[in-house]
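[Solved] Which block belongs to which protein?

Original post:
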Amino acid sequence: MYLRTLIPFVCSIIFLVPQSLRAQEKNPSFPWPEGKTMALSLSFDDARASNPTLGVPLLNEYDVKATFFLVPSAVRKDLEGWRKAAASGHEMANHSLTHPCSGNFVWSRNKALENYTLDRMKKELSQASGEIEALLGTAPEVFAYPCGQTFVGKGTYTESYVPLISEMFLAGRGWLDEAPVDPWYADLAQLTGVSMDNKHFEDLLPMIKSAGAQGQWLVLAGHETNDSGNQTSYLETIRQICEYAKDPANGVWIAPIGTIARYVQEKRTIMGDSLNLPQLVRPGQDGSLVLNARYGRGLGPRITYMPEWNAFGWFMGKDLVEWDVEASQAGSYSVVLEWSVSDQEAGKAFVLTTGSEALRGKVGKTGSWETFKSERIGDIVLDKGYNKVVFKAAEAFDEGALLDLREIRLIPVK
C-alpha cells in the first residue's frame, strides 16, 4: 500500500522519540468544539453557604456554568439560593447523603467508609440523588467522591466503589489530584480533580496553559467561594479564570463536568476505532480473549498503528506488539490470527510468546496489503490471571515488512 513508501521516511525523522510512545503518538488531537484547544470545568463541593450568595452571582456575571456537588442537608439551609443557582443553569451534582470519609478523620468516625458496604453506599447515593431532584428539580448526573476516597470496607473486606459510580453516574470526580484529564484515555468514573482552594490565578495558570498545549480537560475543584478563609476558592481567582476562559484567544471551552463528560463520551464512541490506546484485555463470557491492535502496545524503531486499517504495520525485525491479558482460566488456547501482507513480503517467520510459551510460524499470503485474512495458526498455553502476550518477527530483517496485524483471538480449548 502507498503508506508503506511514506512511513520509513517519516520514521527516520522521529527516530529519537521513545519507543514506548511511538504508536500512541499517532492518535489525533481531541476535537473540542468550535476549534477550542482544551476544556475547563469549575466545581465546588459540599453546598457551602458562600456558593449561592457569592460564587454563583460572580459566575453569572461571566455566563460561566459550574458544577456544584451537593449534600442534601446543606442545600436545605439555603433552599431558595440553591434553587436560583439551579435555575441559572449551573449543574447540581451528587456528593453523597452524609459525606462519609475514612474514620481516620475523627469527625467522620460515625460515618466511616470502613464501616460501609457497596449496598449501603448504593442506597445512600440513590437517596441523595432523589432528595436533590425533589429539592431542586434536577436529577444529578455526576458525582464527587467525598475526601476523594473511593473505597468501602477495611482490610480484606475493602472494595472499590468506582464500579458503582460508573454504573450510577455519567462521571465521578476525585480530589487533590495533580494532573488534567486526558479525554481519550481517562476513566470517566475517576476524573482527576485539581484543587483551586487557597490558590491565586498565577498558581493555576501554568496548569491551565499546559492543559491547553496538550488538548486536555482541566477539572478544578474547590469549596467555599469567598475572599479569604480555609478551603476557599478566592473570588478574585475565579474572576480571573473566567476572564481567561472567555478570551477567544486562549481557546478554552469552559462548561460543567456533565456537559463535557457527555461530549467526551460521544466523541469516543464516534472515533474509537481510530485510536490506539493500550489497555488490559479481559475475557468474554466464553473465556475468549480478543487482542485487537487498538489495545496493543507497539514497541520498536518503526512500528506504526494505522487507524484506517485498525492494524499495526511492521517495518523492521525489531518491531513488536505486546498486550496485557487477564485470562479467566489456565490451559491451552487456540490462536486465530487476522493479518494482511503482499505476496512479495509473505513468508517471514513470526513468534507469539507468553511466559515460557512460544508459538512459531510463517506469515502466509493474503493476496495484498488491503486484503485481510483470518486463520487458526496453532495453540498456546496461558496462566490463569495476568499474562503478557507478545507478537514479533522470529528473525531480524532491516528491509521489507512482516505483516499488517489487525487482531489475535485466543479461544479456550475445551
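(Second protein starts here: sequence line, then its C-alpha cells.)
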Amino acid sequence: MYESFAKTMEINKQKLVDYINKLPEAKVLVIGDLAIDEMICGDTERISREAPVLILNHTKTDIVLGAAANAAHNASTINNGKVSVLGVVGDDYQSEQLKNAFNMANIDCSGLVEEKGRKTVTKTRISGACSQSVTQQIVRIDRQTKAPIKHETENLLISNIEKCVPEYDTIILSDYHIGVLTQKVIDKTIEVANKYNKTIVADAQKDLDKYKNITSMTPNLPDTQKFVKFELSSQDKIIEAGKLIIDKTNAKSVLVTCGSDGMVSINSNGQTDIIPVFNRSMVFDVTGAGDTVTAIYSMGLAIGAGPLYAAIIGNIAASIVIKQFGCATTTVDEILKAIENINL
C-alpha cells in the first residue's frame, strides 16, 4: 500500500542515529489510565470432571505494566528512569501490585491518587500450553471502574499535574477511556504544557477532538476511521483524515498507525509522509505496540527529531517489541542494531 511513497522519503541515516542516541535525554510524564497486566500461565493437565473446561497446572504469574503504564515503561527503558506517572488507583491489593511494578521499572509513581471504592485497572490473561504447542491465551478477566473519577479525585490529580508538568520535556496523555482523563484533566494538562512550551502527545481511541492545541496524537487506523466517519481505503483518504483531525484539534501533527502497512505522518504545515514497516519479521504478539510507538515518538519530538524521524524511530521500536510475548519494551542499543540492516 505504501511502497511508492516510501521510495520518495529522504532520510539521513546518520541523522537518524544521532536522534536515537539523544532519546535518553527526554524526561517523560505519562498521565492516564494506568493498569496491571496479570499474566497467569499453566500447563494443560486434563478436562475437569465438574464441567467441560481445561484444568491448568499453574507454572508462573507475571505482573506487567499495561495500558498507560506500558507507555511509561517503554520510556523508562530508553531514558534510564527519567519517567513519572500520574493517575488514579483504588484502595485495593492490586494498587500495591501496580506501585511495586512501577518501582521495579524505575518509574516514579509518587503522584498517584487513591480513590476509595475504585478498582485499580487489572487485566488478567490466563494462558495454557501443552508439551507440543505454544502458549495460548484462554480467557481474559478485566477488573476496572469505568465511571469518571470523583470530583475530589479530579482536583487532587490536577494539583499534581500543575506541579509535575513543568519538570518534564514531553507529556503523554494515554486515554483508554476508563475514567481518569476527564475533560477538565485534559484541558488543564494541555494548558500547563503549552504554558511551559512542553511537547504533549495524546494517545486516544475515540473523541479525538477532546484534545485541542496539542503537539501531536497517535490514533490507529480503525479509530481514525471511526472519528472521521468515512472509509480510509487509500493513502489519500488517510491523509485527508489526518488533515481533518488537525483542523478539529489544532494539533501540529498527527501520526496514524496502520499496523502491518506502517504509518502516515500528517503535519499542519502540509508535509505528509508514508512510513513503511522497516524491520519486517514474524509477529509474535502486538499487545502494547501502540504504547511503544507513542512513547518513543513523543520522546523523539521532545529532542527535536520532528514528526517524520520521530515516527520512524517509533516504528522501529514497535517492530522489536512485537517479537515478544505481552507488553514489552526495547532499548537504545536494540533500536540502533535494528537500523543497521534497514535500507533508507
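Accepted answer:
You had them paired correctly. Confirming on the second one: The first helix runs from residue 3 to 8.
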